[in-house]
Each structure stands twice: as C-alpha cells, then as structure tokens.
Amino acid sequence: MKILLVKLSSLGDVVHTLPVVQDIGAALPGAQIDWVVEKSFAPLLARSRGLHRVIPCEIRRWRKSVWTAATRREWRTFRAQLQQEAYDAVIDLQGLSKSALVARMARLAPGGQRYALANQTEGSAYEAPTRWVADVAIRIEPHTPAVQRSRELAARALGYSLRSGPHFGLDLPSLKDQQSSFAADKLAMKVALVHGTSRADKEWPLSHWIALGRRLNAAGFQVALPYGNASELVTSQAIAEALNECDGTDAPTDTAQAQIWPLLTLDALTEELAQCTGVIGVDSGVSHIAVALDLPHVQIYNFDTAWRTGPQTGGRQVSVFAQPTPSVEAVWQAWLACRTVHIQVPA
After folding, report:
1. What CATH code is carried by the domain that includes residue 314?
2. Pick from 108, 130, 158: which residue ends a domain?
3. Is 167 contained in some domain?
4. What is the Cα–Cα distance from 22 to 7, expressed in whole angstroms?
5. What is the CB-side half-sphere exposure of residue 78 using CA atoms within 13 A?
6. 182-193, pLDDT tens digit by residue?
7. Residue 341: its pLDDT value, please?
8. Per-residue pLDDT, 98
C-alpha cells in the first residue's frame, strides 16, 4: 500500500505529525509512506524512521513570485516528483487551501482515495477547499490536541485503531549512548534554553531566563543557548553575558556557565538538542523537537493552549501555564520534577 501524507508547515505542526508515520508502520507493515513538506523542514523528516520518501516544496516562497520563470520551472519539477507514484491513499493532515492543492495534484492508484478533515478543531486554522477536494472528509472532535488530531485522522482514513501513546520515531543513534552516560559525565550536564518563538506574546522575560540560568548553573548544569535569527542572538548574548559574568572566571567556551550555539541548520540543531540533559523552552517548533526527542522538557505557556500543543506524555515532559507569564519558581519546580522522573543522578 502506498500512502502520501501532506503536512507542509510549520515546524511545530510537522513535529506534531511525526507519530502518524509510526502509527501507520505499526498497523500496516510494509506500507510505503511518503510525505510532502516545505523544504526547510525536510531535514527533520529525513530522520523519521519508516518514512520512504520526503517530497520537498517551497510554496511559501513560490507564492511570492508566482509569475517568474524560476518559480514556474521549480513548480513543474515539484509536480513531476509528486506524481512519480500513484497512491492508494492521500491524507491531507493540514486542512488548508495549499495542502488541498497538493493533495489534488497527487496521483491516485486505481481505487485510491483522498482523505481530509471535515471540520476545524479548536485553535487550528482550517479552510474549506480541503473538504471539497477530498473523496472522504473525516470529522474530528473539535477539542482535540494537535498530535492526536493527526493520529486520529490517519487511523480513521486507513482503518486501524490507535493502541498506544505517540511515538515520534526520530532516528538519532546517538540518543541511546547520550542518555545512558550523561548522569556520570559532568560535561554532558547541559540544558538548552529555547527562548525564541515566532510570536512576541509567547516570550518569557529576559530577567526570568537569567534567573533560571543561575539556578541551573548552581545545580551543576551548563546552559546552552540556540538562536534562529538576529533578534534571538541578542537575547542569547544577554543571557550568556549575565551568567558568565556571575562565574567570575575566564573559562573557555566549552566549560563556561552559558554557551551560545552557532546558527545551526535544523538537522544540526536536532543533533545538538539530542545531546542535552534536557530542554526548557517557550511554545515553539524547537521546543516541540525536544518532546519528539523524548528529553526531559518544560514548556512555558503565557496562554492556556498547552492542552492543544504542549507535551502529552506527562511525567518528564510538562507544560507550565500562568498569566501574564509563569514564574521562575514554577518553571524550576517543574524542571526538578522532570529530572526526577527521567533519571536519578547521584549527589
């Protein structure tokens, strides 16, 4: 059976959809699963265990220059790649006009069908064309978390039952070695602080990050600071300066209290996160990668939306919500609880 998944963007949404590949693989052994995604997120999908082919597109960029020769040429190449296979099932997991267009362009095998959402779920975007294009439109209960929404849609489209919690299936061989050795290796006691997000109202105050970093340093953790753009770099620099000044030494970068990572590709960033003891971050795509990596993780929310996009596993992955923003103490206590569940570190 050949199956095409359509989930184009954004990073967090793509991460939330990863368990669908593992669900299908478990329920339908031998199924060929392909996935259409924005090119910038393709490196993450390349690590998805059981995924046969990743078909990249750049619809975000193409729609800004629809009539240029370069865009038309790239569109034709994409369409040819998309139509190389004839699919028994095409599942639009996004529910937008652009994903409906891609689903409609895909080639069906004899008897094949297109599936899509029949309705909008709470907090998620939805556009009617996804329903018009589908052969079968499936209604999902509106109050459904993002991960569960995709899993249920695929399960009902393909006729199997969900029998366990979500498994993200990222293929990172280094994870096993890292998780078995970090407790004994002080150099590996590193916590990434993910402060960057696409929305200013999701941010956590700079003073809170510094105070949290100082608590982590006092507990023996080095703070790692990723960034994705110039603005986030400024924040990382401010946190690092405050923490490293408190250290009072001229320690080299690899042993400083706080270390700013270079600007990394998505693939490299995922590798670096996998080597961390854990992650504390705001609601962002990078934080959701931490969940997919099964790391101890605290996700910080200024809005009561954690039920929809926050960690669903509980225990060592939790969300903390408060308005106008969670306190440092609340986040710290959540981190201590996550670590206790994950592994007991000798004093």
Report:
1. 3.40.50.2000
2. 158
3. no
4. 15
5. 21
6. 333 444 589 999
7. 72
8. 97
